[in-house]
Design a protein that fits this description.
Strand content: 5-15%
Number of strands: 4
Radius of gyration: 19 Å
Number of helices: 10
CATH architecture: 3-Layer(aba) Sandwich
Distance between the termini: 37 Å
Length: 219
């Protein structure tokens, strides 16, 4: 990353914006009980520490040019990330990182923003749609508008809008703003539903058994 920053400055004379966007998830989705620890930790390495390692080498330039840092969060920054906890924990962490960084940068005339995409039609969401059990759990847990997938262009438009306005929070699509604002209500309610919902419990057990069987066959 230091080399990338140096190459950018050499080519263009300055760097104004750094966007920490790289992200991976456990594929297939797993509970912590059935996760292979190395793969689980790699998600956190990329999605949380990778963000820090992306931002840090660029900060001198961002401060010097009164620029902007953008961090890609997720609906999982605040929604329950059942069977995707490494990803969800990382996205919750980068949300706090960007919020804290914004407060630290304001005295320098620079800023930081969190981008919150909804479920977006990209490679990282393919397992959600292609795995029958995961798809059943997803459509059961995220019903109605919450289960809608957006085109990548929606996220791109939101990102441009957020850069132009230096918005602290960038929601794409915009209606996800309401879900975040109501997280103090939504989170306890959804956690409570997950505690009691037998369909969810059954699907989780089936997925865990599927992962255990698959692991046994591969070894």
């Amino acid at each position: 990353m230091a080399a990338a920053v140096a190459a950018t400055v050499a080519e263009f004379g300055r760097l104004d914006v750094v966007w920490a966007n790289a992200g991976i998830a456990n594929d297939p989705a797993v509970s912590l009980l059935t996760a292979e620890l190395t793969s689980y930790e790699r998600v956190i390495q990329v999605d949380l520490l990778g963000v820090v390692r992306t931002i840090k080498p660029a900060l001198d330039q961002v401060v010097q040019n009164k620029g902007q840092v953008v961090v890609t969060g997720s609906g999982y920054s605040f929604l329950n990330a059942v069977l995707n906890s490494a990803y969800g924990a990382s996205k919750a962490g980068v949300e706090m990182l960007a919020r804290s960084l914004r407060a630290e940068l304001v005295s320098h005339g620079a800023s930081a923003s969190v981008l919150y995409p909804s479920w977006t039609k990209t490679a990282i969401t393919h397992s959600t749609q292609d795995d029958e059990l995961i798809n059943r759990l997803f459509t059961h847990a995220f019903r109605g508008p919450l289960g809608t997938f957006s085109e990548p262009e929606v996220v791109a438009d939101g990102l441009v809008r957020g850069l132009e306005t230096r918005a602290p929070r960038i929601f794409a699509p915009r209606w996800w703003t309401a879900v975040s604002v109501l997280r103090g209500i939504v989170n306890p309610l959804t956690d409570s539903v997950l505690d009691r919902d037998r369909t969810t419990h059954d699907l989780i057990r089936q997925l865990e058994q599927q992962r255990i069987t698959s692991h046994a066959r591969s070894t």
